Amino acid sequence: MSEQGWREFIGREDLNDWVVLHGGAVAVFRTESMAEAAKLAGALTVVPGIEGSGALMTVADGRLTIRLTRDLWGLEPRHIGLARAISTVAREHGAVADRAAVQEVQVAIAAKPDTLDVGFWRAVLGYEPRADDNAVDPLGHGSTFWMQELDGAKPLRHAMHIDVSVAREHVDARLAAALAAGGRIMDESVDPAHWTLADHAGNRVDITAWPDGWTRSPSERR
Q: Which residues contact 172 (CB under 8 A, 6 or more apart)?
């Protein structure tokens, strides 16, 4: 696995329905009702290549969410054709893509190299591995837990934080909403890759458009 898969996916101009987050490629399609969302999900089950691909579909009232993979590094060239086919079927069913509704929430557990304990988190949560450093909900409902290895020479100040990944054109609005709700910017040194915010109690969260906006400069984001 490498960066080539997700970089090629993001570079395609015919996949605008899709957002590539740190958990992989995701699309949300709005429908008239839950029944229509379920009907669309049924139609997608016969799209060539989707069976056995690891795709995850979640039906909700007026919405169908589709994740092509559960891990960013699992995106491969074959997913480009699959995503295109899914979008075609969605349009045929009158569904409309909603990039603003797409997000990924991840819990980052920070530790020094000799105290990383991904096995504990997999066991206590009933999660499964998708990579050596993470734990993923097999039902696809809960947030991924990622083990963040810290430099052994640096002090451990915040052992846990939240990562929120959204589409590139919506990251500024999400940041503004968080600040309006009382959040404080703690680190913007890598803007626009991500911002670190904190609530009044000092609990931290990273807001990011990565990797969806990796090729865009601040002046190009809109």
A: 221
Quote the pLDDT of residue 217.
36
Question: Which residue, among 64, 50, 56, has the nearest Cα to 130 in the 3D structure?
Answer: 56
Stretches where the chain sits below pLDDT 50 are 215-222
Residue 192 preceded by cis peptide, ω within 30: yes
Q: Residue 149: phi, psi to the nearest 5?
A: -80, 125
pLDDT value at position 216? 43
The rounded Cα 138 to chain-centroid distance in angstroms is 16
Domains present along the chain, CATH in parentheses: 4-101 (3.30.1360.20), 103-220 (3.10.180.10)
Q: Which residue has the tokens 């670190």?
A: 196
Q: Which residues contact 26 (CB under 8 A, 6 or more apart)?
A: 18, 19, 20, 65, 66, 67, 68, 102, 104
The pLDDT value recorded for residue 156 is 66
3-state percent helix, strand, coil for the chain, nearest multiple of 5: 30, 30, 40
Could you tell me the pTM of the whole model?
A: 0.87
**Measured distance CA(68)–CA(103) in Å, rounded:** 14
For the chain, give the number of residues: 222
Smallest CA-to-CA distance from 165 within 181, 186, 146 is with 146
Contact 104, 36 (CB under 8 A): no
